[in-house]
Amino acid sequence: MYDLFFTEEHEDVRALAKEFAEKTLAPIAAEIDKNEKFPMDVVKQMGELGFFGIKIPEEYGGIGLDARSYVAVMEEIAKKCATATLFISSANSLSTAPIVLNGTEEQKQKYLPDVAAGDSFIAFALTEPDAGSDAASIKTKAVKDGDSYILNGVKCFITMAPISDYAIVYAKTSPEKGVKGITCFIVDMKLPGVSCGAPEDKMGQRGVPVSNIFLDDVRVPADCVIGEVDMGFINAMKTLSVGRIGVSSMCLGIAQEAMDLAVEYTKTREQFGRPLKDFQALRFMMADMETRLNAARLLTYNAAYLLDTKQPADKAASMAKYFAAENAIDIVNKSLQLHGGYGYSKEYEIERLYRDVRVCSIYEGSSQVQQIVIAGQLFR
Ligand SMILES: Cc1cc2nc3c(=O)[nH]c(=O)nc-3n(C[C@H](O)[C@H](O)[C@H](O)COP(=O)(O)OP(=O)(O)OC[C@H]3O[C@@H](n4cnc5c(N)ncnc54)[C@H](O)[C@@H]3O)c2cc1C
């Protein structure tokens, strides 16, 4: 059905991810959620399978595949364990895109191979307590001092911060220049003055810790600037724009799993002497869910195809993220409804999916931020 977008090579990559998700992740996903701990040996296996280097160029230890390969892997992994996709999206998108896009040769050689192998994690630290959707209003400052910069500020909701070796940190170097005064730094998390807050007690995707990062007079060498001084905001926006298809594909996987669960459950559960699937009201509800899931899929695959063919993809990626997130949340919600009271029990997988999917319309640009981007393109 999606031959238009995918070649046999893409399908081989998808098959590898599907097999790993079903054999390795499905049996442990509930436990990961319950214990809020992701087994590091499984992270290692994902690294060995190449999932962290899908989009990292071969010369830097990756396998240099395209956006559609990334989407296919993210979708298959998300079906069985949304938390696992965070390791994949971090490695292929948020943590490495700033370096791939603007890093020096030396920076690429230094940081990318370890991330591709799963031996190093890099957090992406943009959000602050008073700067979320309005990311340009960050207050973290970086002041030049000889051959270094001194960083001060607080970043919040930073995925993987407590387990990361480095963080990509956006800070104001020329506060008077607003959006044109932000610089991107790579900060070693072991430097004096760097600390993390307690992990957030999150609703879903609980296997990966999210916390504050405190920067207290942190001296960062000037060679840790990524790209040009004062030009970091463009780097952040480009990274997030590409990153959006990662969240979209995560939504596809979670929503597909919810759909499959709904089909199975309504085939076997009987009320009024008939299986639920025989009630037309429920059949129509599921027809609607299936249609919207496939529309989200087309938007996401199309955005990935545009990226792969070097065509403008910002609007397409925002439409995909907006539509996929809103509809995945609704599809999972309806699947839970179809499970009745059992869907509300932690014994059923749909309960976890309901919590895991909710953040998708919030992070990497909320649905409203996507609407701002889409409308902005209409009125350019
Ligand atoms: C689990 C999790 C992980 C995260 N990981 C990271 C990470 O790794 N790195 C990172 O930098 N950040 C991360 N974030 C932060 C995330 O990107 C922000 O939460 C998000 O950008 C929204 O910012 P906010 O929470 O401050 O909400 P606000 O910006 O305060 O928004 C509140 C509400 O108002 C809406 N809104 C805001 N402005 C407008 C407007 N102009 N028009 C219409 N509606 C508007 C928003 O859509 C939202 O619904 C993470 C967040 C979560 C929950």
Q: Given the helix and strand composition, which structural class is it?
A: alpha+beta
The CATH superfamily of the largest domain turns out to be Butyryl-CoA Dehydrogenase, subunit A, domain 3
Q: How far do the termini sit from each other?
A: 34 Å
Q: How much is the average pLDDT? A: 97
What form results from the Cα inertia axes?
globular
Tally of contiguous helical segments: 12
Q: What is the count of structural domains? A: 3
Heteromolecules bound: flavin-adenine dinucleotide
> Biggest sheet, in brief?
4 strands, mixed
CATH architecture of the largest domain: Up-down Bundle
Give the C-alpha Rg: 21 Å
Describe this structure in words.
By secondary structure, the protein is of the alpha+beta class. The protein has 3 domains: 8-117, Butyryl-Coa Dehydrogenase, subunit A, domain 1 (Orthogonal Bundle); 122-230, Butyryl-CoA Dehydrogenase, subunit A, domain 2, CATH 2.40.110.10; 234-378, Up-down Bundle (Butyryl-CoA Dehydrogenase, subunit A, domain 3), CATH 1.20.140. The protein is built from 12 helices and 10 strands. It has helices spanning 8-25, 29-35, 40-48, 67-80, 82-94, 97-102, 105-117, 232-268, 280-308, 314-338, 349-357, 367-378, and strands at residues 122-125, 141-145, 148-159, 166-172, 182-188, 194-196, 210-221, 225-226, 270-271, 274-275. The strands form 3 sheets. The protein has a 4-stranded mixed beta sheet with strand order 1-4-5-8. Strands 2-3-7-6 form a 4-stranded antiparallel beta sheet, with no helix packed on it. Strands 9-10 form a two-stranded antiparallel sheet. A hairpin with a 2-residue loop joins strand 9 and strand 10 (274-275). Helix 4 packs antiparallel against helix 5 (82-94), helix 4 packs across helix 8 and helix 10 runs antiparallel to helix 12 (367-378). It is globular and about 80 Å long. The mean pLDDT is 97. It binds flavin-adenine dinucleotide. Flavin-adenine dinucleotide binds at residues 124-127, 132-133, 157-159, 202, 210, 359, 362-363, 366, 368-369.
